[in-house]
Amino acid sequence: MAGALPDGEPVPDDGSLPDEATHEVGKNGFAVYVHVPFCASRCGYCDFNTYTASELGGGASRDEYAGTVLSELALAARVIEPGPVDTVFVGGGTPTLLSTDDLGRILDGIDRTWGLAPGAEVTTEANPESVDPAYLRRLRRAGFTRISLGMQSTAPNVLRVLDRKHTAGRAPQAAIEAREAGFEHVNLDLIYGTPGESADDFAGSLRAVVDAGVDHVSAYALIVEDGTRMAGRMRRGELPFPEDDVAADRYLAAEAALTEAGFEWYEVSNWARGDDARCRHNMLYWTGADWWGLGPGAHSHVGGVRWWNVKHPSAYARRLAAGTSPGQGRELLGDDDRHMEDVMLRVRLREGIPLSRVDATGAARALADGLLEPGPYQDGRLVLTLRGRLLADAVIRDVL
Predict the structure, then answer these.
(1) Which of 292, 285, 390 has the alpha carbon at shortest distance from 346?
(2) Euclidean distance between CA atoms 160 and 162, whole angstroms
(3) 340 φ, ψ to 5°?
(4) Omega into 93 within 30° of 0, i.e. cis?
(5) Across the strands, what pairs with 309?
(6) Whole-angstrom Cα distance, residue 354 to residue 8?
(7) What would the pLDDT profile of 230-270 be if each residue is shown by its tens digit?
């Protein structure tokens, strides 16, 4: 048996799952996530499971990574038969540090193993400086339909605080190049509330997003995670901590600018130009679908069983080379756990959640406080107002 995390049971060496978890796999949709843990440099705010060349150590190779992922996929094929894959999302790290041939090999392997559904959404994340027009054209030919670019800001001072390496104008230009390469959908990520960011800085970033012609925007408040370089700088007094009031002002600015430009919010931190531009992969996460996560540290969920792989790429590669599951631990979600997670995710969606799924007293209180839309409430659904979106976590606590 593989080792387990303190809060999880061991994962069998063959990665097998209980029969009750697999008998309806894919009934509500099936997704594949592929984690690529490589980065050229580490951003000061990042606590993701990523590694620069100097941090990898022995036993892990970027050149051999696609083959290692395909080994896990072969193991997965013996565990579940979910039917066609609705979405694939390659995240990181910086997936576009891999060659387009390697990314294409992984996508082909998923298609051969389980089959891609007609019109499947296939996304990769990318740092703006890691792609150029030729790379983007090859990526599109390999079968990728959607790209998500880490922009964060167009203000040079903000990029310096975040330790981002691209220049201020590179992300919008990369988005334009992606559309010219034939990508159906292009997303730009923003981070707001960085120390030193002014209202004008953020307004400039929003204008750049709109002018780039993308059809999807994700915008997140800066979260300072323990153990990051940025957290250390804040503890030493080199940077001020983010302010909640500033983050709220930035969110309102994003809502106003993006709505005026023809975007609609569909999840608290995500806006799209119409339903077709929504990230279907994330929607599967948020609505309780099954997915298999490939790669070191990747999490998976099938039929109420959630498991996670060993984090370091070397340990991940060693286990697969030995023919054993890279899973480190897993847990069986009970009915209460699944209900809690369903509420936590669906409350954040534009469609909201049926009132029958939440605490009636808490919902009535949120309505009285102006946090819920009255019309949908009368029709039996909980849907956040704009103010409710600012206080979404509080609403979720109340209605649980």
Answers:
(1) 285
(2) 5
(3) -60, -45
(4) yes
(5) 327
(6) 32
(7) 888 988 999 999 899 999 999 999 999 999 999 999 999 99
